[in-house]
Design brief:
By secondary structure, this protein is α/β, with parallel strands linked by helices. The protein contains 21 helices and 17 strands. It has 5 domains: 3-83, DNA polymerase, domain 1, CATH 1.10.150.110; 88-147, Orthogonal Bundle (DNA polymerase, domain 1); 156-245, Beta Polymerase, domain 2, CATH 3.30.460.10; 253-322, Beta Polymerase, domain 3 (2-Layer Sandwich), CATH 3.30.210; 332-541, TIM Barrel, CATH 3.20.20.140.
Amino acid sequence: MGTNAELSEIFGAIADLLDLAGERFKPEAYRRAARSIDSLTEDVRKVADRGGLREIPGVGEAIEEKIREYLRDGRIPYFEKIRGQFPPGIIEIMKLPGIGPKTARRFLLELKVEGPKELLEAVDSGRLQGVKGFGPRKVELIRKALAATEPPKGRTPLLEAWEIARQLVEALRSGAPVDQVEIAGSLRRRRESVGDLDLLATSREPEKVFDRLSSDPHVASIVLRGPTKETVLLKDGLQIDLRVVEPAAFGATWQYFTGSKDHNVRLRTLARDLGLKVNEYGVFRGEERIAGATEEEVYRSLGLPWIPSEIRENSGEFEAAQAGKLPKLVAASDLHGDLHIHLAGETGPKDVEALLEAAHRRSWRYLGVIVPVAESCDGVLAAATVRFLEERRRATGEAIRLLLGEEFDGTNAPHTAIERDYWVLRGSAGTSPPAHRDSPGAGSPPLLAAHLTPSEGSTGSPSGSLAEWVDWAQEIGTALEVAPTAPAGALDSAAARRASEHGVLLHASSSAATGAELDRIELSVGLLRRAWVAPEGVLNAAPWAPPRPARPKP
């Protein structure tokens, strides 16, 4: 785990402990600092070395001192002190589904319960009976949570969360009496990973909507159910929160549960300054609801244009909105193709045709496929596929222009049977970029982009080296790739924003191998929108395709 990730985790733990201690305002201060440090594109040590810690949102004098203690000594005495005030088991209770710091504090103070074992004894002995807020259903849910053997699920990668959410939304739309169903939370904001999934619906029959969700074959258990909310756990441990609201409040609820928390705090402050109140039910002047049916209504009532969900992080969007300078962010409809489709060794002509047809349905102008080389673990393409690719590549008058590319890491040998139109550099985000345009060989076609992968053993974003890659791309004049399948340690939206601000082009890649997977391009676009990137900053938003290299004269 990198320094940034470690500090973010510690400050998040401090916030939970302060909640346990009954503090009112300090927990959120530490959570904001944790979020800011986690999203840094630069190693926090470098920030400290140049005296820039106070520039990090949420880092004041006290938190700055704790960061310096950690960087100097590898520990934060304040964290150790506050952690020592509580039994270790109470922290484990907080991690149980449906139990947060406030409930854990009640267990500790009112029932003298100090850990999961004591809590199970309290449940079995009936000590929770008659305790306010713990009815029979709640007690049974606590029992089920204690009986769960699987550890709490960590954060889920964006692509995995998106695929799960799409399946659940489709199941609700086709199998429940809903009028609207939408994705909210960090998935809607296109964060690189999510802690849980938030779904929102309108319906006149909430119970039937909840029944449809809980009966899904992927659902393991119901954590809680109320008049307007159901929480379930999937078999892999991912938590799903589904809310059903009235149409008049749908926009306000969607805005509220999309977040981020920092964005919503700023929005509530703005409303208060205008003599209004905003919450998940609407915007109110006194007792009168003046907006809430749509998000546009909510923002307009506060004197703001609608703010795209991907940039709601309190990272400059309010200033831009108030100045009338919100950027025109790239949209999926702006793209004219994808230049990094991977062909596997078993790919045949029919598979390529399916890809081209899927691209044509998107009204794309070109499709670039990466052909596996002889040493590729995906194998070598069959001769029939090679002939088909060459024929389609040379064809004129096609609705979709087919381009052939190669991914080069400095060691692989070219697939000599196929002429390339371009190449993509595969580099490690955990190492420094090459000092020059490393090339597959003399007479090579143009370098279009760099596709970054994490260094071996990387579990977090190596932000220092990512900054070097951004500088390299600016100097070389090539693009950096943004992909929904990129694991931790590859180019993320924060680094992409830095790259775009430095004038570096970005390439939205679907990382697809089949026509059905081209839909993933929407996630890459979401990451670019999160990075505040306009269409002119995206390589494949240009209505062109790389020129074919001229053949050398004999």
